[in-house]
Amino acid sequence: MQMYDLLIIGAGTAGLSAAIYAARGGLSTLVFEGAMYGGQIIVSPTVENYPGVGCVSGADFANSLYAQAEQLGVQFAFETVVSVEDTDGKKIVKTDSAVYEGKAVILATGAKNRPLGIAGEERFTGRGISYCATCDGSFFQGKTVAVVGGGNTALEDAEVLAKLCNKVYLIHRRNQFRGEASQVERLQKLDNVEFVLESTVVELQGETSLTGIVVENVSNGTRQSLQVDGLFVAIGQVPQNAAFSELVETDSHGYIVAGEDCKTNRAGVYAAGDGRTKTVRQLVTAAADGAVAALAAAEYIRAM
Ligand code: NAP
Fold first, then answer.
1. Whole-structure pTM value
2. Does 175 sit in the ligand 1 pocket, CB within 6 Å?
């Protein structure tokens, strides 16, 4: 069994920030990542609200974090974690290919895209439905698409797609957006973006690929069909904490219960980033969590 001071699960902004702080604090640190490092921000075309970095792409931001952690001696295991156990204070992490022991663990697995939950969604995924405008937008060049959601991701997606597509419908269930007002104003100025507010998508149409959607107005129940070639779903995230539900307390939505000190109900186990109960989920709060959790873990390890 390979042994480390600190095991960090997830290489998004929270996990990588934690790794940087842990390595600088002298802890031997291993970060697990089941897919690509970087987390959710990797598909954002621009990051404009992280203090001090100006305007960078999400991919560049993630690459810098990863490079900084690696230079400090952080090790990475690109393996999927299947369980975390606490055996007499030893934290045992099992992945799909190995077993590791740590003195403390930081859970930083973040969240994944929330599905619409309507009939046909799975069937049309990759055949008209996408959850990533930056990744798939170019397939819809010159076509008509719709974006669902009212947060920053949906607004950002609509802006990206407006540059590529003939027409973009932005469908949101309320008449006010959750995302930043400045981005809403930019979209309002674009001729090929049409807001469809107080509306939800209730039906997906098409044989082998998506050809249209039916949208229902939530206040008066009227329905309209929109002919679209693509539907980009950007309605937030759901936490990825299923593997930890027996290890630590989670709330009714699956978020790990931990305060601003990032401490869970289990000694030596910390939660950082979007997977933790919190009100503001931003890059800067994910990074802050990483620092707080790593420093708390270092203190816990020193006191062992
Ligand atoms: P979000 O802020 O949680 O917004 C989700 C949106 O989807 C909300 O408008 C919500 O409507 C809507 N929604 C949720 N469930 C729905 C359903 N079942 N059907 C229809 N609509 C539904 O998620 P996000 O936009 O992915 O952003 C996540 C976090 O990342 C946010 O803190 C955001 O600011 C941040 N972010 C930052 C950047 C950046 O800095 N460049 C880019 C993207 C995201 P209601 O408003 O009615 O609840």
1. 0.78
2. no
Question: What distance in Å separates the CA atoms of residue 58 and residue 73, rounded to the nearest whole number?
Answer: 23
In CATH terms, is domain 115-233 a member of 1.10.10.10?
Answer: no
Q: Give yes or no for residue 63 CB within 6 A of ligand 1.
A: no
Tokens 């590791």 — which residue?
Answer: 100
Mean pLDDT by 10 residues, the chain (304 residues): 95 98 98 93 83 93 97 98 96 96 98 94 92 88 98 95 98 97 97 98 97 98 98 95 95 96 98 95 94 98 96
**Which atom of ligand 1 approaches the CA of 281 most closely?**
32
> Which residue in the list 60, 135, 251, 261 is annotated as catalytic?
135
Q: Which atom of ligand 1 is nearest to the CA of 49?
A: 40
Nearest CA to ligand 1 atom 39: 47
Cα gap 220→82, rounded to integer Å = 46
- Indicate the helix (H) or strand (E) that contains 6: strand 2-9
Place of tokens 């698409």: 145
CATH superfamily, region 3-112+237-302? FAD/NAD(P)-binding domain (3.50.50.60)
57 lines ligand 1 (CB under 6 A): no
Q: Respond yes or no: is residue 135 known to be catalytic.
A: yes
Domain ranges of the chain: 3-112+237-302, 115-233
Tokens 């309507």 found at: 118
Q: How far apart are CA 196 and CA 50, in angstroms?
A: 30
Specify the ligand 1 atom closest to the Cα of 235.
7
Cα distances (angstroms) measured from residue 256 to each of 69, 165, 271: 25, 39, 7
